[in-house]
Amino acid sequence: MNWRLQNLILALTLPLAPGCTSSIGASVEVTPSSVQIAQQRPRQASPTPTPSLQPSPSRSPTPSNQRTAATPIRFSLPPEGAPGYRGDAATRDACNDAGKSRLIALVPGTNLGLTIAERPTFWFYVSEQVKSTTPVEFMLVDEQENTVYKDSFEVTVSPGIIGIKLPQNVSALEIGKRYHWTLSVICNPGNSRETANVDGEVWRVDKPELQQKLDGVSGRDRILLYAENGLWYDTITNLIELRRQNPQDAQLTKDWEDLLRHPDVALNKIVAEPVVTCCKAR
Prior knowledge:
Protein name: DUF928 domain-containing protein
Shape: globular
Structural class: alpha+beta
Largest sheet: 6 strands, mixed
Helix content: 10-25%
Strand order of the largest sheet: 2-8-7-4-5-9
Pfam family, one: DUF928
InterPro entries: DUF928 (IPR010328)
């Protein structure tokens, strides 16, 4: 029994002795060498932040209302002209009233207009003097003075701008040939001399490269191409049709004004005139 008691006393007193460590509970001893090793370990790099996918405010798309203004219409007049009279001076109007023309042809000042259309539309201004009972005659002849088309009708609304389109039963204009047209108002059916006449020429040209460009655009872009290539009848006809479809479009209104006020066109006096329905066959 004595040896057991001695062993118990020894087990209780040994932990109290200097330099001894108890096995009861975990103990971590920090030594200077361990601190030095920790300081020499490389620091782990911080993770690189993921870039934001949101656009920077300074690179945001430009609003549509801040984009550049629309390209203005630029009509290129061909170097050639033709004999004729478009009626804007009233000097050849045998039945004019108070020096005012009854008719004005919407053509450039050279009296010649180009087209790529097989059957173009011809445009004229008729004053209030042209009544619904006044006979009006349109005639188109070729270079040999053969009649290609001739028709008589009555203007249903005046004053205003009217269009006369060649019908489908008329042969297509030949490329490279010039045609002469005349519009006459019979002021006095009893006297053939009392008429108001305007006349000019149309020339159908071939522009295959332009046609390829036209096939890829529509609307106003087509009108700009027509004008740049000097195609008068195509420019004015398509512009009128587009304005009919978009009567509130301010840009198209400006295009119309710019075209008629072009220095080589100079039809300022009829810029504000409406396009009216025409006509009634006689």
